[in-house]
Amino acid sequence: MFAASGDSMLSHGMKQTGSISxxxxxxxxxxxxxxxxxxxILLLLAFFATYMIALSWADLTYVLPATSLGYVxxxxxxxxxxxxxxxxxxxxxxxxxTGGVGFIAGGPEITVYSxxxxxxxxxxxxxxxxxxxxxxxxxxxxxxxNGAPGARL
Amino acid sequence: xxxxxxxxxxxxxxxxxxxxxxxxxxxxKQVGNVGVVWRREGLVxxxxxxxxxxxxxxxxxxxxxxxxxxxxxxxxxxxxxxxxAAASLTFIGNAVAAKIFLHERVDRRRWxxxxxxxxxxxxxxx
Lengths: 153, 126
Fold this sequence. Notes:
The complex is a heterodimer. Chain A is mainly alpha-helical. Chain A folds into 2 domains: 2-108, no CATH class; 111-145, no CATH class. Helices cover 60% and strands 3% of the residues of chain A. Chain A has 7 helices and 2 strands. Chain A has helices at 2-17, 26-31, 35-57, 60-66, 69-80, 88-105, 119-128, and strands at 132-133, 138-139. Chain A has a two-stranded antiparallel ribbon. In chain A, a hairpin with a 4-residue loop joins strand 1 (132-133) and strand 2. Chain A starts with a helix and ends in a 14-residue tail after the last strand. In chain B, helix 1 runs antiparallel to helix 4, helix 2 (34-41) packs across helix 3 and helix 5 packs antiparallel against helix 6 (108-125). Chain B has one domain (2-125). Chain B is built from 6 helices and no strands. Classes of the chains: A mainly alpha, B mainly alpha. At the A-B interface, helix 1, helix 3, helix 4, helix 5 and helix 6 of A face helix 1, helix 2, helix 4, helix 5 and helix 6 of B.
């Protein structure tokens, strides 16, 4: 909801600002003074904070699909509030995107914590990390400072 | 010509977003479960750990690049094209990057889903 409403407000604000020439990049900075863009930025910051919290206990390929419901909201906002034309083909495209990400979100192994295909890596991760209860999203060890399982960049 | 500008900006958004997402995901795993840390040490500790993580700072920088590219793209194209197209391509890029850099499991089911997303993007662009 934060992402969809934030993007919509940014769009409305940038349409008020008008097209920005690539030779006048400073116009982007002044665009922030537009109230619509300022509120849009605040909403996107709220999205960012909740996104970070989710990433702290879930896998990237789990969190990202979960945010896809925003596309549906965005299409509805674009159509009914911003009065943009959304053609049937675009509606179908949005439906495919939503279906695709929903397909992944419905998978049985959505986080790296339940990855059993790489026992060596999993054993290494478990050995290097505090015990983690994936079902409850809780770290079981006292000190979580050195990271949760799956932090293997 | 605006279509070229729009899709160029979308490409920059996708690249910057993928780099940012991977770095931020890695950083938050290093920080630990925010709920647990918050209850145990307080909100200040959560903020201090997060803001003190170099991966988080680099990730935010990449996200800032993506954000300003989004502003450019939104000034040239419809939000119902720019936002879903950039986000869905970012999703595919993240699936590849997560497999390579975060060693996440991306199985056949996930690649099929990525194909669905790509088809959706093609329809959006048409």
